[in-house]
Specification:
The complex is a heterodimer of chains A (465) and B (311). Chain A has 465 residues and is of the alpha/beta class. Chain A is built from 21 helices and 17 strands. In chain A, strand 9 (239-240) and strand 10 form a beta hairpin. The chains are: A alpha/beta (465), B mainly alpha (311). Chain A: Pfam families: SBP_bac_1 (PF01547).
């Protein structure tokens, strides 16, 4: 019996996802008796773990306030928070399986870049279809910049509300820079300057001078905090006018930089890129003063080295963590002829099409993005760039990094192409960096990448030469 | 002569129908009642084994994906998935790693270690035997998630227990020797089954045969080869069949190395998970699963034939 069960288990696991297709869909927010409306809200956040503040905020503020507000309107609404605390890739897998099987929480958070593939799969629907005209007349739209609205828009329809946006910078450890005799207001102007600085840090005994995410283990973090900002610095966008960047010179330049860092120079630690928990370790090592320069988004400042509740707290963050804009390969060689570049993304929050109470779910969704909720959420050193300009004006004052990002970085940033095939192209890019870290030359890795890309985007005709 | 041959003929003819009735309906239930007894089991098998297997066969012929347009409206693409799997180096890499994993951890590791422990403990009684057996079985019955966590803590580069014991600094065992790590892990994990099976099998070897062999001056190895092995050959084959298939389909290595670094420990079970769920290519993953199913069938048929020919 054990034999039979096991020998087919792989098959059965796979088939389970297919089986659920035939199963009838039902929302987890089943209405209880006595007219009580039960809603669930899910995020990749968990008290005491990943994004702990967000989890606590939902549990301690959003839920009681929302329930009270509904009660005042004469509705009996009960809201439950569904936490997770896993890697983004795993959260995505779980969420897609939930949605595929007609289940999942009523209000869900997704990464902006999943919107295209989720929409095409029918896992998410335009908000106006679910919640009616209230979705399009929501007061918040007037406060959200066009580019940020674009994150939630697919084929001209709004599938979600944007939760915010972000930007990527180079972080550096001021104590290590001081040890190596480097300035505390460091701002490199070319890739060569980054490498030279790395060499000086190495000479001063810094264990890991530079950490730029690579490899497949880090998933999208490799693409977003590695390949894409570098590619923008080399003067190319991953997709432009419908054509994808293949084994072109900019892609080879990017892979070449990876080789200079991880190919035996000792400027970076190849093992961090290969380990299953490499990114978490890189956070830990930066906080412990072992990493000199690190390319990350503002999440790193807010959620990782945050002295209060980061996953790798740094009590002296404000004094010892420096930040600088990401330079182009050489001044003026970045996209649009820029000297400096960045990449931005942003999360979305939307109503699950399987929800039994889509109108109430939208009310909850809109409530979490009301000015009062955003102000409450970003209180006490928990500031982030919200989607609303009215709120940002108030809360960003006095937050040096976020002011820096919103004033200096966001004007020159770029976004990922919101198309369904992007995540697969992203994996191909991650694999190319993994190959370089594993010892292949940039040319070999670029050729293999081009080959894979042709299979993904429908032939060489869709690739810029 | 005619008279002499007729009685046996008669007996055969009268005995035959009874024998046939016995073989067809031993319990005397009749066709319908017997069918009713077996129906629930057959139904469960059909729902949980036959249907999923057929469903996977079908999925393998489509471009079904976890997300995107192909999730809503999968198209039949024929044998494309199978052809691209067979032309894909990562698939062959995973197959080769799986062969190493099965040979290393199941055939050599678990069978070798399991038999050795069973042989050494065969005549022992008392606390030593109970402690050794207890420890080996403990490794087997603990939940995978728990033991994987323990093994990561043991082999981790930063403050791992093994490095602390050996004084090897921050040597990254899981990155430098990923296959060896999961082979040793799986040997440790699964030895209990082989040990118990061989323990029981050795109890069936008649002591008188061993005694005669000893009296005839047979050495330890000669006793094993000429007395013990012929008795437990069937057990060895059954054991090999079971643990080969279990190991072939084992997913626990994922929890230790996640298939990494760079696919160096991506055995087939992990490969399927990665392509089907992480990259979302459910159709392609189903095709690879079908290939795995076929490999399993070939292995099973090979062992079963061997088993039959021995009998």
């Amino acid at each position: 019996m054990g034999l039979r069960r096991r020998s087919v288990s792989v098959v059965a696991v796979l088939a389970a996802s297919g089986l659920t297709l035939t199963a009838c869909g039902g929302s987890s927010g089943d209405g209880g008796g006595g007219g009580t409306i039960e809603l669930t809200i899910a995020q990749n956040a968990i008290a005491g773990g990943k994004n702990a503040r967000a989890a606590e905020f939902v549990a301690d503020w959003v839920i009681p306030k929302f329930e009270a507000a509904q009660k005042a309107k004469g509705k009996d609404v009960k809201v439950k928070f569904v936490p997770s605390g896993v890697d983004d890739e795993q959260y995505k897998t779980k969420l897609s399986l939930d949605l595929k099987s007609g289940k999942g929480a009523d209000v869900i958070d997704i990464d902006g870049i999943w919107a295209g593939e989720f929409a095409e799969a029918g896992y998410i629907k335009p908000l106006s279809e679910l919640a009616g005209p209230e979705a399009d007349s929501w007061e918040g739209w007037a406060q959200i910049p066009e580019s940020v609205q674009g994150l939630a828009t697919y084929n001209g329809k709004k599938y979600a509300l944007p939760i915010g946006t972000d930007g990527r910078v180079l972080y550096f450890s001021k104590p290590l820079f001081q040890k190596a005799g480097l300035p505390a207001d460091w701002q490199p102007k070319s890739w060569q300057e980054i490498l030279d600085t790395g060499a000086k840090l190495k000479a001063a005994g810094v264990p890991v001078p530079i950490q730029i995410n690579a490899g497949t283990a880090m998933g999208e973090a490799t693409t977003m905090q590695g390949v894409l900002p570098l590619l923008a610095g080399a003067g190319a966008e991953i997709q432009k006018d419908g054509k994808w960047a293949g084994a072109s010179q900019p892609v080879k330049d990017v892979l070449g930089l990876y080789q200079k860092i991880y190919g035996g120079s000792g400027l970076g630690d190849p093992r961090l890129q290969q380990e299953a928990k490499g990114r978490d370790k890189s956070f830990q090592q930066f906080a412990e003063g072992k990493i000199g320069i690190l390319l990350e988004g503002d999440y790193f400042w807010r959620g990782v080295v945050n002295p209060k509740d980061g996953v790798a707290k740094m009590a002296d963050r404000d004094q010892s963590v420096g930040y600088a804009m990401i330079p182009a390969i050489e001044p003026g060689k970045g996209i649009r002829g820029q000297d400096f570049v960045s990449m931005s993304g942003g999360a979305l929050r939307t109503v699950n099409p399987n929800s039994k109470h889509p109108k109430e779910a939208f009310e909850l969704l809109a409530f979490t993005l009301s000015p009062e909720a955003l102000k409450e959420e970003t209180k006490n050193g928990n500031v982030r760039i919200t989607p609303r300009t009215d709120v940002n004006k108030e809360i960003l004052a006095g937050e040096p990094l976020l002011t820096f990002i919103s004033e200096k970085v966001l004007p020159l940033t770029a976004y990922r192409p919101p198309v369904a095939v992007y995540p697969q192209v992203s994996v191909a890019l991650q694999e190319a960096t993994a190959a370089v870290v594993g010892g292949k030359t940039p040319d070999e890795a670029a050729t293999a990448y081009q080959q894979k890309l042709e299979g993904l985007v429908g032939g060489a005709g869709n690739i810029a030469s | 002569m005619a008279q002499a041959t007729s009685p046996p003929d008669l007996t055969r003819e009268t005995a035959d129908p009874t024998a046939r009735r016995y073989s067809v309906d031993a319990a005397g239930l009749g066709r319908w009642r017997a069918g009713a007894f077996a129906a629930p089991a057959l139904l469960l098998i059909a729902i949980f084994l036959v249907f999923p297997a057929l469903w996977v066969l079908y999925l393998g012929l489509t471009d079904y994906r976890l997300t995107g347009a192909a999730a809503a409206d999968p198209k039949v693409v024929g044998f494309d998935n199978f052809l691209s799997a067979l032309g894909e180096p990562t698939f062959w890499n995973s197959t080769w790693l799986t062969v190493q994993f099965v040979l290393g951890s199941a055939v050599i590791g678990q069978v070798g270690l399991g038999f050795t422990i069973a042989w050494l403990l065969r005549d022992r009684r008392g606390p030593l035997k109970r402690i050794v057996e207890g420890l080996v079985i403990l490794a087997w019955i603990l939940p995978s998630a728990v033991v994987s966590f323990l093994w990561v803590a043991l082999l981790d580069a930063d403050g791992g227990t093994l490095n602390a014991l050996l004084g090897t600094g921050d040597y990254a065992w899981l990155l430098e020797h990923p296959m060896l790590s999961i082979i040793v892990f799986n040997t440790w994990r699964g030895t209990a089954f082989s040990m118990m099976l061989y323990g029981a099998a050795l109890g069936n070897v008649p002591p008188s045969h061993l005694e005669s062999a000893r009296l005839a001056g047979a050495s330890g190895w000669q006793q094993l080869r000429d007395v013990v092995f012929p008795h437990i050959k069937g057990h060895i084959l059954t054991n090999l069949l079971l643990i080969s298939l279990w190991t072939f389909n084992d997913f626990t290595p994922f929890m230790i190395t996640a298939g990494g670094p760079d696919g160096k420990s991506e055995v087939l079970a992990v490969h399927v998970y990665k392509v089907a769920l992480q990259s979302g290519q459910l159709g392609y993953g189903a095709a690879v699963s079908t290939v795995i199913l076929l490999i399993n069938l070939v292995v099973a048929v090979f062992y079963l034939r061997l088993l039959r020919s021995k009998k």
